Structures are given as C-alpha cells and as structure tokens.
Amino acid sequence: MNKRELLNYAKDFYEEDQLLELDHAIEYAKKAHTGQKRKSGEPYIIHPLAVAYTLVDWGMDIDTVLAGVLHDTVEDTDATLEEIENLFGRDVAFLVDGVTKVSQARAGMRDLNSYLPQTKDNLSKLLIAVGQDVRVIIIKLADRLHNMSTLQHMKPEKQIKIARESLEVFAPMADRLGMGRVRMQIEELAFSYLDPAEFKHLQSVMKKRLGKSTRKLGVVRTEVERELAKHNINVEINGRVKSIYSLYKKLVKLQGNIDDVYDLMALRIIVDNNEDCYRVLGILHSMYQPMISRIKDYIAVPKPNGYQSLHTTVLTPNKQIVEFQIRTQEMHDYAERGLAASFHYHEQKSSKDYTRKKGSSSTLPAQLQWITQLQEIASRLGEDEEISRDQLNIDLFGNRIFVYSPKGDIYNLPEGALPLDFAYLVHSDIARHAYSFRVNGMIHAFDKPLQNGDVVEVVTRKLSSPKQAWQELVTTSHARAKLRMQLRKLGLVESISSAAAIIRDKASRKQKS
Ligand code: MN
After folding, report:
1. What's the predicted TM-score (pTM) here?
2. Which residue of 151, 243, 457, 489 has the smallest Cβ count within 10 Å?
3. Which of 164, 193, 222 is the last residue of a domain?
4. For this structure, is 236 an active site residue?
C-alpha cells in the first residue's frame, strides 16, 4: 500500500478539500514514522496506509480515515496530540487519542487469556475510549485486521497470543457492532494460526464438498430465478459459502458430522423491499418443501446485533437440502458492514449521532443501546467500587436479548437479565416504584430471567420503594449502579456492609414467607 494507491481509491468518495487533508495527514505520518520498519522489513507507513484504506472501504467519514492514517503516531513517534489537534482538528485528535488509549490499556493487560485488563485504570481507559466514540473501535478493528493479515512475520508465541486475543475480544466486538464481514475475516485468520492443521483439513473437506454442491445448487438457482421472474420480482442471487471457522464451530456442536451441515453453501437472494422478502419466501415454499424448524424471520425479530434477513431451508424434489437467505440491499449492507454502514462518506451529521452523546438510550437504535450503557459505566468507573470485572465482562461480550415494553418500544439487555434490569433501563423512577412484573401478560417473578422477545410490563405502586434484596435481583451494572444510588439515598447501604445486608435481608425475607 502506498500513498498514490490510497489517494486514488479515496478520490471517488470524498470532497476535494477532504482529499487535500488526507494528503496532508499521509505526509505528516510518513515523516513521523521515518526510519521505522514493520516486522516484515517494509517501511512502517504501509501499515497506517493499509488501515486507512480499509476505513475508506468500509465507508467511514473522513475524520475516521485521517485518524486511521495517524493512529500510531502519538504512541510510536514524537508526534503529539496537540500538534494533531492544531493540524487536523479536535475530532481527529480525539479519535487518535482514543486509539492510543485502547493500545495502552491492552498493554496493561497482563493476562490476555482472560481478555480484560487487570487494573481498573486500564479498563476505564478502554471503556471510556469505546463509550465516547464507537469510531475508535472501528479504527482498532481495521488496525487488527491488517496486523492479522501480516502475522506471518511475527514469532510463533506472539502469533498465538494475538490470534487468541483477536478471536476472544475483537471478533465479538465486531459482531456486537454488526460488522459480520470483519468478524468473519478476523475469525478465519485467527483460527488459521490457532489450529493450522484443522484449518487446512476443513479447507480441503469444504473444497471437495463445494465442487459437488455448486453444480447441484446451480440447477436450483436457475429454477428459482425463472420462477421469481414469472412473478416480476427483481432479484439478485448469490452463493454464500460458509466460513471455515463457523464450519468448525458447527462440527464441534454436531460432534463432527459434516453430512449434517446443510448450509455449507446457501443461496442469498437480494430484493428491493421488505414485502418482496416475504413474497420470495412464499414462492420458495410453494416450490419446495420447507423444513419447518429452520424458518427464521429475522426481519420481524432482528438478531440482537441488528442483523435482518429471512432464513429458510428447503428440500428439493431430488432430496437436496438448500438454505436460502432473503434480504433487501439495505439489510445486506448492514449484515456485512454493521455499524460502519451508518457512517456515510459525506454526511458528517449521521456520524455525530454515534459520537459522545450523553442523552438517553433511546437516541440510538435498540441494537446499539449497549454503547450508551457503556458510556454510563465508563463515566462512573473509579467512583463506584462495586462494578466488578465480571460485570463488565458480561455487559460487553455476553449475548444480548431484545425485550419490548407494552407500547412496543424495544430494549436491549444481556442474556439472563432479570425484570428489574429492564425496569432500570426504562427509567430509574419506574424501577424505584416497581411492585410486580407482567411478562407476556403473566405475573413474572423478580428472579426469573427474561427471554428474547418478551413483552415486559412494570407494575408500579407509589408507596413501593427499592429494597436491599434487590441487589441480588439485578444483573447489569447499569441497574446495579442506579439501585445502589437509590439505596444510598434511602440510607440502606453503607450503614452496614453489603454482605451483612444481604444476609440480614435474606433472613427477613424467610421470616415473612
Ligand atoms: Mn496500528
């Protein structure tokens, strides 16, 4: 990657003055990194240029691309943040600072296997960086992707360490941001270093299989295309090949039988609008026998990271099992690029929506509310000793569920969340007066976890107030912090140690029942 290639690629996407700035940033970074080399022996500058190229490719705004060019200057060279701010503006400096902080936080992680920083200080740096501007993480992902693709120049122990960290931290992070393609790229690279023998084996098994199924799928595809044309539905059909790592995971789950993996190759149908997705599904089901348990409507009920599509698996007359994924172009862009798809080249405005917004969770789409929640956690770090590493671990990397208010507002919570977690997410005043819960119209116990898709109603009573026992009935750090604040106000914590409080509270509950 050199300067000319990057500028040449960028020129289709940015305004003239933005391209001049890019040129300027490249010159600045080149000078700063003079004399530095990558492990491959190449000049260091190829790395920031490759990162910036990826960010252009993902459709990021110009500030992110500039920060990509400059991302290693403050950490590795004499360049200073003040200088960058003077030359390229506050936003770019802010992003470079965020990336630098994440790197420093990582350096402070003694045990990468447990993948969270050991010290609160480092953790807070990482989270503040993430929470304030998600573009920092997007730059880190581009950075990681390039480092993974040049990993062959590293020592074997280092390769393993970086590959493991990528699989455990960066791939889930990409997934959480809905960036499916990046997640897959990171996983494939990481897996190829962590278990090279298995990777090669699966690659060759896959190749053999695909040869056969591609031919058979071609027949189905032609048939489908002809039928949809008859219905005047405008479509584009592509084959989607399963990644080696997801095949590996599936084989582990199925205990090794590749014959049971139906979706080695799926047919992806891209249509113009939502209605056409359902029309295509209907037509497919009238042509072939669907396997009932494998019909998934991720359009009506998106995956927690925002992924949308219809999935169905059918049996053709000659007993071939074929998976279809049906989606609009917009859904497809989101599935591939996730959050990055919401940053538009010229529209600085839209990217601002994801930037340092201190407002309520509802300003972000449901699948991204966790970002706001992280901001809140980050801002409380250091003042509240009660947020444990485990807590953050769950919030950051655990699976998410969607639940609904009776009005149909969507809320995003970690898997295993309890009704009070929901109540505190809606509003701490509602939570404060929680008396009971109705889930899908039925009375629901305080200690019973919510499920994806639940409709949750908080029944409040004016005279009801937070109880110490609630500390055991919340799982998110958000709810825990709000609850503790309320208990403190009521004088219910700190007068006695929390352990003693819980024991006492348990005892009193037993007496009552
Ligand atoms: Mn870098």
Report:
1. 0.69
2. 489
3. 193
4. no
